[in-house]
Amino acid sequence: MEQPSIEAKYRKLSRLAQALHIPVPEAFWELEVRDRHGRVIHCHKQRAHSWVRNAYNLMVCQACAVAADNAVGLAIVDTAGVTKSDTITQPTSGWSSTGSGNQSVYVNSGYGFYAGAGVDTFGIIVGSGSGAENFNANALGTKITNGVGAGQLSYAAVNAPSITTLGTTKKVEWVRFFNNNSGGAVTVNEVAIYTYGTCGNASVYYMPCRDLIAGGISVPNTGQLRVIYTIQLTYPA
Predict the structure, then answer these.
(1) What is the rounded distance in angstroms from the CA atom of residue 222 to the CA atom of residue 142?
(2) Model confidence over 190-220: pLDDT tens digits?
(3) Cα–Cα dist 132/212, whole Å
């Protein structure tokens, strides 16, 4: 988790938000490594700091019903580094930016975060890059690709989201497993969400968040990594 002084600031912010009746979203990563016998050999949990510019541009476009127009700084940048800007269409996270396709946002397999087995283009994605967190980042530094070759991990399907309520706090958890059949240890230094969405009725993959894992996490050969991404929002009482 955070250093005590940093965590204290987050808690102070949370209390202040409650007093002012302003819901403040929080996000966390949890990474658990098991060896070939299924024994837990490493567990790491930290706050997710890095919702990048893409996430906020998407939120503003949806909340305010404005187009993803680069002229006003609200375009998204896809994972290939291409700016996606449309003067009449909001960027969404469903199959289509118009019509019934939006009913599948983040719900059915093949949309939003909800990637299938072997898919490393969206969903929870891990990487080996160690570059600094950057608000303008659009992709992992070095993505660890799906496969069984050297330096690769086998991507399982993203689990259906788990939604729970405790008091006035609503939590949504996304989980993905990664199996290491590469023949050697694989070190994970960064973790992100890539989402499969649209902009101007064209498919696009973009990254709303990325975080570094301090010191990295080694996944042994024939071992398994589980990554949990939790978004929580505490509403005023």
Answers:
(1) 22
(2) 999 999 877 766 788 999 999 999 999 999 9
(3) 7
